[in-house]
């Protein structure tokens, strides 16, 4: 999951860079925060800290939904307008 997430974020950021997306820095920060939480989840799961892991999983789920419906959708809207000009 970690490898795929990084791969996906890299591809998305390359697309944003190639299309001069003005919100790219904020988007990269969001991606970076997600990777940090993923790292915590990995660490917690090794410690067998179930409660903390469940909280982290909840965070990851909420982050993913909010990011896709918010920031990623904004980028999609930008691309549609960019390509239409
Ligand atoms: Fe994204």
Secondary-structure topology with pairs:
Blueprint: H1 2-18, H2 24-47, H3 50-84
Bound molecules: fe (ii) ion.
Briefly say what this structure is:
The protein is mainly alpha-helical and 85 residues long. It contains three helices and no strands.
Would you mind describing this structure in some detail?
- With 85 residues, the protein is mainly α.
- It has one domain.
- The protein is 89% helix and 0% strand.
- The termini are far apart.
- The relative contact order is 0.14.
- Fe (ii) ion binds at residues 12, 27, 31, 67, 71-72.
List keywords for this structure.
3 helices, elongated, 85 residues, mainly alpha, 0% strand, binds fe (ii) ion, 89% helix
Report the C-alpha radius of gyration, rounded. 15 Å
Query: What is the chain-wise order of helices and strands?
Result: HHH
Structural class: mainly alpha
How far apart are the termini? 37 Å
Low-confidence stretches: none
Shape descriptor: elongated
Number of helices: 3
What's the number of domains?
1
Mean pLDDT: 88
Bound molecules: fe (ii) ion
Strand content: under 5%
User: Biggest β-sheet, characterized?
Assistant: none
Helix content: over 70%
**In total, how many beta strands?**
0
């Amino acid at each position: 999951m970690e490898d795929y997430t990084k791969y996906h974020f890299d591809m998305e950021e390359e697309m944003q860079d190639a299309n001069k997306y003005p919100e790219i820095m904020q988007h990269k920060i969001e991606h970076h925060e997600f990777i940090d939480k993923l790292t915590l989840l990995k660490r917690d799961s090794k410690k067998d800290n179930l409660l903390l892991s469940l909280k982290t999983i909840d965070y990851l789920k909420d982050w993913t939904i909010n990011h896709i419906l918010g920031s990623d959708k904004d980028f999609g809207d930008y691309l549609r307008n960019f390509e239409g000009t």
